[in-house]
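Person: At home tonight, work slowly through the protein below, taking as long as you need, and write a paragraph about the fold.
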Amino acid sequence: MAFDKIPPVKNSEFYLDIALRQGKRAAVQRQRRRDNPIARKRGYELTRIEAIGKILTGEFGAIVDSFPRFDELSEFYKELVRLSFDVPEYRRSLARVNIAGNSLRRLTMEYSRRVRWARDEESISRHARAYTGRASSYVKQIKEVFPVLQHARTKFREFPLIKPDIFTVCLVGFPNVGKTTLLTKLTTADPEINSYPFTTKSLNLGYFSIGSQKIQVIDAPGSLNRLDKMNNIEKQAYLAIRLAANFLVYVFDPSESYPMALQEKLFSLMSGLGKKMVVYVSKADIEPEAAALIAKKYKGFTSPVELKKSISGMV
Protein backbone atom coordinates (compact mmCIF):
# COMPACT_ATOMS: atom_id res chain seq x y z
CA MET A 1 0.00 0.00 0.00
CA ALA A 2 1.43 3.36 -1.06
CA PHE A 3 0.49 5.39 2.01
CA ASP A 4 2.07 8.51 0.53
CA LYS A 5 -0.48 8.38 -2.31
CA ILE A 6 -3.52 8.85 -0.04
CA PRO A 7 -5.06 12.19 -1.14
CA PRO A 8 -6.06 14.90 1.36
CA VAL A 9 -9.49 14.63 2.97
CA LYS A 10 -11.36 17.94 3.01
CA ASN A 11 -14.31 19.03 5.15
CA SER A 12 -17.99 18.59 4.28
CA GLU A 13 -18.35 22.21 3.13
CA PHE A 14 -15.62 21.69 0.55
CA TYR A 15 -17.35 18.69 -1.04
CA LEU A 16 -20.74 20.39 -1.06
CA ASP A 17 -19.36 23.60 -2.51
CA ILE A 18 -17.49 21.92 -5.33
CA ALA A 19 -20.47 19.69 -6.19
CA LEU A 20 -23.00 22.53 -6.24
CA ARG A 21 -20.76 24.87 -8.22
CA GLN A 22 -19.80 22.28 -10.81
CA GLY A 23 -23.38 21.04 -10.99
CA LYS A 24 -24.59 24.54 -11.85
CA ARG A 25 -21.79 25.04 -14.36
CA ALA A 26 -22.61 21.77 -16.12
CA ALA A 27 -26.31 22.68 -16.25
CA VAL A 28 -25.63 26.12 -17.74
CA GLN A 29 -23.36 24.64 -20.40
CA ARG A 30 -26.00 22.08 -21.33
CA GLN A 31 -28.89 24.54 -21.83
CA ARG A 32 -30.35 24.68 -25.34
CA ARG A 33 -32.06 27.84 -26.52
CA ARG A 34 -34.35 25.99 -28.91
CA ASP A 35 -35.98 23.89 -26.16
CA ASN A 36 -39.41 24.93 -24.92
CA PRO A 37 -39.43 26.31 -21.33
CA ILE A 38 -40.40 23.02 -19.65
CA ALA A 39 -37.90 20.98 -21.65
CA ARG A 40 -35.22 23.58 -20.98
CA LYS A 41 -35.96 23.57 -17.24
CA ARG A 42 -36.01 19.76 -17.15
CA GLY A 43 -32.70 19.51 -19.01
CA TYR A 44 -31.10 22.10 -16.74
CA GLU A 45 -32.13 20.39 -13.49
CA LEU A 46 -31.43 16.87 -14.74
CA THR A 47 -27.92 17.87 -15.73
CA ARG A 48 -27.38 19.67 -12.41
CA ILE A 49 -28.67 16.76 -10.31
CA GLU A 50 -26.66 14.16 -12.20
CA ALA A 51 -23.50 16.28 -12.02
CA ILE A 52 -23.87 16.83 -8.26
CA GLY A 53 -24.46 13.13 -7.71
CA LYS A 54 -21.51 12.13 -9.88
CA ILE A 55 -19.14 14.52 -8.12
CA LEU A 56 -20.16 13.57 -4.58
CA THR A 57 -20.21 9.82 -5.19
CA GLY A 58 -16.91 10.11 -7.03
CA GLU A 59 -15.25 12.04 -4.21
CA PHE A 60 -16.58 9.70 -1.53
CA GLY A 61 -15.65 6.62 -3.53
CA ALA A 62 -12.13 7.96 -3.99
CA ILE A 63 -11.81 8.46 -0.22
CA VAL A 64 -12.93 4.90 0.52
CA ASP A 65 -10.71 3.38 -2.17
CA SER A 66 -7.59 5.36 -1.25
CA PHE A 67 -7.41 4.23 2.38
CA PRO A 68 -6.09 0.78 3.28
CA ARG A 69 -8.40 -1.85 4.75
CA PHE A 70 -7.18 -2.61 8.25
CA ASP A 71 -7.73 -6.37 7.90
CA GLU A 72 -5.56 -6.46 4.78
CA LEU A 73 -2.53 -4.84 6.43
CA SER A 74 0.50 -6.84 7.55
CA GLU A 75 0.89 -7.43 11.28
CA PHE A 76 3.57 -4.75 11.40
CA TYR A 77 1.25 -2.11 9.98
CA LYS A 78 -1.71 -3.28 12.06
CA GLU A 79 0.28 -2.73 15.24
CA LEU A 80 1.58 0.59 13.93
CA VAL A 81 -1.98 1.71 13.20
CA ARG A 82 -3.12 0.70 16.69
CA LEU A 83 -0.38 2.88 18.15
CA SER A 84 -1.26 5.83 15.94
CA PHE A 85 -5.04 6.27 16.01
CA ASP A 86 -8.38 4.74 17.04
CA VAL A 87 -8.94 1.74 14.74
CA PRO A 88 -12.70 1.27 15.40
CA GLU A 89 -13.32 4.97 14.76
CA TYR A 90 -11.28 4.79 11.55
CA ARG A 91 -13.26 1.79 10.28
CA ARG A 92 -16.59 3.39 11.21
CA SER A 93 -15.60 6.59 9.41
CA LEU A 94 -14.76 4.78 6.18
CA ALA A 95 -17.99 2.78 6.43
CA ARG A 96 -20.04 5.95 6.88
CA VAL A 97 -18.46 7.61 3.85
CA ASN A 98 -19.19 4.47 1.83
CA ILE A 99 -22.81 4.38 3.02
CA ALA A 100 -23.25 8.08 2.24
CA GLY A 101 -21.89 7.54 -1.26
CA ASN A 102 -24.30 4.67 -1.91
CA SER A 103 -27.21 6.69 -0.50
CA LEU A 104 -26.35 9.64 -2.73
CA ARG A 105 -26.22 7.35 -5.75
CA ARG A 106 -29.72 6.06 -5.04
CA LEU A 107 -30.98 9.57 -4.27
CA THR A 108 -29.63 10.87 -7.57
CA MET A 109 -31.34 8.09 -9.51
CA GLU A 110 -34.63 8.68 -7.69
CA TYR A 111 -34.75 12.44 -8.23
CA SER A 112 -33.52 12.21 -11.80
CA ARG A 113 -36.53 9.99 -12.44
CA ARG A 114 -38.89 12.42 -10.69
CA VAL A 115 -37.61 15.39 -12.68
CA ARG A 116 -37.75 13.43 -15.91
CA TRP A 117 -41.45 12.64 -15.40
CA ALA A 118 -42.53 15.98 -13.93
CA ARG A 119 -45.22 17.71 -16.03
CA ASP A 120 -44.57 21.36 -15.26
CA GLU A 121 -41.80 23.76 -14.27
CA GLU A 122 -43.05 24.11 -10.69
CA SER A 123 -42.83 20.34 -10.11
CA ILE A 124 -39.39 20.22 -11.68
CA SER A 125 -38.17 23.02 -9.39
CA ARG A 126 -39.72 21.39 -6.32
CA HIS A 127 -38.00 18.06 -6.98
CA ALA A 128 -34.70 19.79 -7.75
CA ARG A 129 -34.80 21.75 -4.48
CA ALA A 130 -35.69 18.61 -2.55
CA TYR A 131 -32.75 16.78 -4.10
CA THR A 132 -30.30 19.55 -3.22
CA GLY A 133 -31.58 19.66 0.35
CA ARG A 134 -31.41 15.91 0.88
CA ALA A 135 -28.00 15.56 -0.79
CA SER A 136 -26.64 18.37 1.39
CA SER A 137 -28.10 16.68 4.45
CA TYR A 138 -26.37 13.37 3.64
CA VAL A 139 -23.03 15.14 3.41
CA LYS A 140 -23.52 17.19 6.59
CA GLN A 141 -24.56 14.09 8.55
CA ILE A 142 -21.04 12.71 8.19
CA LYS A 143 -19.14 15.97 8.63
CA GLU A 144 -17.32 14.66 11.73
CA VAL A 145 -15.73 11.72 9.87
CA PHE A 146 -13.65 13.87 7.52
CA PRO A 147 -11.27 15.20 10.24
CA VAL A 148 -10.91 11.64 11.54
CA LEU A 149 -9.84 10.40 8.13
CA GLN A 150 -7.55 13.37 7.50
CA HIS A 151 -5.81 12.59 10.81
CA ALA A 152 -5.47 8.94 9.76
CA ARG A 153 -4.04 10.06 6.41
CA THR A 154 -1.41 12.17 8.19
CA LYS A 155 -0.39 9.19 10.30
CA PHE A 156 -0.32 6.77 7.37
CA ARG A 157 1.96 9.12 5.44
CA GLU A 158 4.41 9.09 8.38
CA PHE A 159 4.73 5.30 8.22
CA PRO A 160 7.91 3.79 6.73
CA LEU A 161 7.27 2.10 3.39
CA ILE A 162 8.46 -1.37 4.34
CA LYS A 163 7.97 -4.02 1.68
CA PRO A 164 6.35 -7.01 3.43
CA ASP A 165 7.30 -9.70 0.89
CA ILE A 166 11.06 -9.09 0.91
CA PHE A 167 13.58 -10.81 3.20
CA THR A 168 14.25 -8.15 5.82
CA VAL A 169 17.33 -7.52 7.93
CA CYS A 170 17.10 -5.13 10.87
CA LEU A 171 20.15 -3.31 12.24
CA VAL A 172 19.75 -2.84 15.98
CA GLY A 173 21.77 -1.19 18.71
CA PHE A 174 22.14 2.14 20.43
CA PRO A 175 22.03 5.42 18.47
CA ASN A 176 25.27 6.57 16.85
CA VAL A 177 27.00 3.19 17.09
CA GLY A 178 27.47 2.99 13.32
CA LYS A 179 24.22 1.44 12.07
CA THR A 180 23.61 3.99 9.32
CA THR A 181 27.21 3.74 8.13
CA LEU A 182 26.84 -0.03 8.03
CA LEU A 183 23.60 0.35 6.09
CA THR A 184 25.35 2.34 3.37
CA LYS A 185 28.13 -0.24 3.17
CA LEU A 186 25.76 -3.19 2.96
CA THR A 187 23.64 -1.59 0.30
CA THR A 188 26.39 -0.16 -1.90
CA ALA A 189 25.63 -2.75 -4.60
CA ASP A 190 22.10 -1.35 -4.89
CA PRO A 191 22.07 2.00 -3.06
CA GLU A 192 18.34 2.56 -2.90
CA ILE A 193 18.53 4.32 0.46
CA ASN A 194 15.84 6.68 1.70
CA SER A 195 14.83 8.33 4.95
CA TYR A 196 11.17 8.10 5.88
CA PRO A 197 9.69 10.28 8.61
CA PHE A 198 9.21 8.25 11.75
CA THR A 199 7.54 10.94 13.87
CA THR A 200 10.57 12.92 15.18
CA LYS A 201 13.14 10.37 14.02
CA SER A 202 13.73 8.50 10.80
CA LEU A 203 13.71 4.87 9.81
CA ASN A 204 16.39 4.32 7.18
CA LEU A 205 15.87 1.63 4.57
CA GLY A 206 18.30 0.24 2.04
CA TYR A 207 18.32 -2.64 -0.43
CA PHE A 208 20.85 -4.97 -1.97
CA SER A 209 20.53 -8.04 -4.14
CA ILE A 210 21.83 -11.59 -3.97
CA GLY A 211 21.30 -12.93 -7.44
CA SER A 212 17.62 -12.37 -8.14
CA GLN A 213 16.79 -12.10 -4.43
CA LYS A 214 16.37 -8.57 -3.08
CA ILE A 215 17.20 -7.93 0.56
CA GLN A 216 15.64 -5.11 2.58
CA VAL A 217 17.78 -3.60 5.35
CA ILE A 218 16.28 -1.44 8.10
CA ASP A 219 18.18 0.82 10.47
CA ALA A 220 15.81 1.01 13.45
CA PRO A 221 15.97 4.25 15.49
CA GLY A 222 15.92 4.43 19.26
CA SER A 223 17.88 2.64 21.95
CA LEU A 224 15.05 0.21 22.84
CA ASN A 225 16.85 -0.56 26.08
CA ARG A 226 13.79 -0.20 28.35
CA LEU A 227 10.99 -2.14 26.72
CA ASP A 228 8.62 -1.51 29.60
CA LYS A 229 9.02 2.28 29.38
CA MET A 230 9.13 2.93 25.65
CA ASN A 231 7.52 6.03 24.21
CA ASN A 232 5.51 5.72 21.00
CA ILE A 233 8.51 6.44 18.80
CA GLU A 234 10.53 3.65 20.39
CA LYS A 235 7.57 1.30 20.21
CA GLN A 236 7.31 1.93 16.48
CA ALA A 237 10.96 1.01 16.00
CA TYR A 238 10.49 -2.05 18.19
CA LEU A 239 7.60 -3.18 15.97
CA ALA A 240 9.87 -3.05 12.94
CA ILE A 241 12.30 -5.35 14.74
CA ARG A 242 9.69 -7.72 16.15
CA LEU A 243 7.25 -7.97 13.24
CA ALA A 244 9.03 -6.93 10.03
CA ALA A 245 12.50 -8.43 10.44
CA ASN A 246 13.54 -11.94 9.40
CA PHE A 247 17.08 -11.47 10.65
CA LEU A 248 18.83 -9.12 13.10
CA VAL A 249 22.29 -7.61 13.06
CA TYR A 250 23.28 -6.26 16.47
CA VAL A 251 25.85 -3.45 16.21
CA PHE A 252 28.38 -3.06 19.02
CA ASP A 253 30.47 0.11 19.34
CA PRO A 254 33.92 -0.69 20.83
CA SER A 255 34.61 3.01 21.42
CA GLU A 256 31.88 2.80 24.06
CA SER A 257 29.80 5.78 23.01
CA TYR A 258 27.48 3.84 25.29
CA PRO A 259 28.96 1.80 28.16
CA MET A 260 29.63 -1.79 27.15
CA ALA A 261 27.46 -3.04 30.01
CA LEU A 262 24.43 -1.25 28.52
CA GLN A 263 25.24 -2.47 25.02
CA GLU A 264 25.43 -6.05 26.30
CA LYS A 265 22.16 -5.63 28.19
CA LEU A 266 20.40 -4.47 25.04
CA PHE A 267 21.99 -7.37 23.14
CA SER A 268 20.46 -9.78 25.66
CA LEU A 269 17.05 -8.18 25.23
CA MET A 270 17.27 -8.48 21.44
CA SER A 271 18.37 -12.10 21.78
CA GLY A 272 15.14 -12.80 23.63
CA LEU A 273 13.00 -11.93 20.61
CA GLY A 274 13.54 -15.34 19.05
CA LYS A 275 15.05 -13.93 15.84
CA LYS A 276 18.20 -15.19 14.14
CA MET A 277 20.88 -12.65 14.98
CA VAL A 278 24.56 -11.99 14.33
CA VAL A 279 26.91 -9.38 15.76
CA TYR A 280 28.70 -6.67 13.84
CA VAL A 281 31.38 -4.57 15.55
CA SER A 282 31.68 -1.07 14.14
CA LYS A 283 34.59 1.38 14.26
CA ALA A 284 37.18 -1.41 14.12
CA ASP A 285 39.59 1.04 12.50
CA ILE A 286 39.38 3.28 15.58
CA GLU A 287 39.45 0.59 18.29
CA PRO A 288 40.95 -2.49 16.59
CA GLU A 289 41.85 -4.43 19.73
CA ALA A 290 38.53 -3.87 21.49
CA ALA A 291 36.66 -4.66 18.28
CA ALA A 292 38.55 -7.92 17.84
CA LEU A 293 37.74 -8.98 21.41
CA ILE A 294 34.02 -8.29 21.01
CA ALA A 295 33.91 -10.05 17.64
CA LYS A 296 35.63 -13.08 19.16
CA LYS A 297 33.32 -13.15 22.18
CA TYR A 298 30.13 -13.04 20.11
CA LYS A 299 31.44 -14.77 16.96
CA GLY A 300 30.71 -11.56 15.11
CA PHE A 301 32.06 -9.56 12.18
CA THR A 302 34.12 -6.43 11.76
CA SER A 303 33.95 -6.49 7.97
CA PRO A 304 30.77 -5.45 6.12
CA VAL A 305 31.78 -7.76 3.27
CA GLU A 306 31.92 -10.80 5.55
CA LEU A 307 28.68 -9.74 7.21
CA LYS A 308 26.95 -9.55 3.84
CA LYS A 309 28.14 -13.08 3.07
CA SER A 310 26.63 -14.24 6.35
CA ILE A 311 23.32 -12.57 5.51
CA SER A 312 23.39 -14.19 2.08
CA GLY A 313 23.59 -17.58 3.73
CA MET A 314 20.39 -16.87 5.67
CA VAL A 315 18.22 -16.09 2.66
